[in-house]
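hey so i finally got around to running the thing on that chain from the lab meeting. sorry it took forever, my laptop kept dying and i had to restart like 3 times. anyway pasting the input first so we r on the same page abt which one it is
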Amino acid sequence: MHEDGYLEIKDRSKDVIISGGENLSSVEVESVLYGHSAVNEAAVVARADEFWGETPCAFVSLKNGLKEKDLPTEKDIVEY
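ok and heres what got predicted. didnt touch it at all, straight out
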């Protein structure tokens, strides 16, 4: 936090998510999400998981102006 009250975020703490002994690249998962026609922005981070150690957690924003029928559900994005 800066003296003037602004919070500076430089980058995520790491780009590798270790899930069940497999190394997953958060950048690669984001790249796949950007391939979806409705995705405007995507950010993937590690989320703690008791069984897997970590699992990917995606934060996704959709493009503006999509028609109701073209809006993907959370399930649509996960299956993509």
